[in-house]
Amino acid sequence: MKQLITFSLFLSAGMVAFAQEEDTLVEATSEMEEVTEIPDDPFVRKTYNATRIINGHSVETLEKGVLEFRIEHRFGDMAGDNGGAQNFFGFDNAADIRFAFEYGITDKLMVGLGRNKGTGEPYRSLLDGFVKYRLLHQKTSGMPISMTLIGVTTGTYMKASDDISQISHFPKWQHRLAYSTQVNIARKFTNWLSISLMPTFVYRNYVGGDDVNALFALGGSAKVRITPTKAIIVEYYQTFQGADVRTGFKNSLGIAYEWDTFGHNFTINLTNSRGFIETQFIPYTKEDWLKGQFRLGFSISRKFMRG
């Protein structure tokens, strides 16, 4: 029940913030349309409303001087062997929690630093840092796509296990580190439809005997806008390498409802992944949607403008 109280507090805080902006939002809807469709602006704006999709990054970057604080929370299985009424459909458990600060150095370059509780399978107490650069920006005429390059490093400072058969034994400090590199390619086809492809390479310095260090995945996402501020998002990552070795692992799949306001972005999602960062949800997802092993999660982000 402690996790349910936590969720209720965050949800209440988010709703209060959104309610305070609701009057402004109603009056500003037409203004938002103008911002995204300025006749003299050569660039296509808001391919995605936030820098994240569900688990992974979107093609978007923060504007220069903008600081963003993010809170992400994921509960336990809603159904299956570990879900149901006994665990209040997952609300009694916290699969993972992340707090992060992210900053736009320029309109094209942003960085971020976050702390993750960790899922415990196999890591707890994770730090993540990333650099993100927008290489291409879709234009109303000419350039048909946007492209962003993303580099991520994660490391755990959990106490090493005394069991040498465990991944968390960490014979060397380098074994605590993992990396991912992604090319995020997206196109906004209409005002209501955006699609992206995310080829991603993950490398972990230390893995078990039933795993591989290097792992390639191809992510895909679609955002369908249902109002100027609300959207339905689907995200999927297909892994390729190590199929003959990596038994029991699943591909990450998520669906979300997104609510965007001026300064806030709020997302409620369902996914079979427990962790957040590419080095976690791509290689370590084991839950199966068809067995009810999916969980409710949410994210709240708040932007602070310079000046």
Report on this structure:
With 307 residues, the chain is mainly β. It has one domain: monomeric porin ompg (Porin). The chain is 13% helix and 41% strand. The protein contains 2 helices and 12 strands. A 12-stranded antiparallel barrel has the order 1-2-3-4-5-6-7-8-9-10-11-12. The longest helix has 35 residues. The radius of gyration is 19 Å and the shape is globular. The N terminus is likely disordered.
What's a concise summary of this model?
By secondary structure, the protein is mainly β. Helices cover 13% and strands 41% of the residues.
Please give a handful of descriptors for the protein shown.
about 40% strand; globular; disordered N terminus; 2 helices; 12-stranded antiparallel beta barrel; Porin
What secondary-structure arrangement, pairings included, does this model have?
Elements: H1 2-36, E1 67-77, E2 94-104, E3 109-116, E4 126-136, E5 146-156, E6 177-188, E7 193-204, E8 214-227, E9 230-239, E10 252-260, E11 264-271, H2 278-281, E12 295-304
- Tell me the major beta sheet: 12 strands, antiparallel, barrel
Give the CATH superfamily. monomeric porin ompg
The 3D shape can be described as: globular
Q: What's the rounded overall pLDDT mean?
A: 86
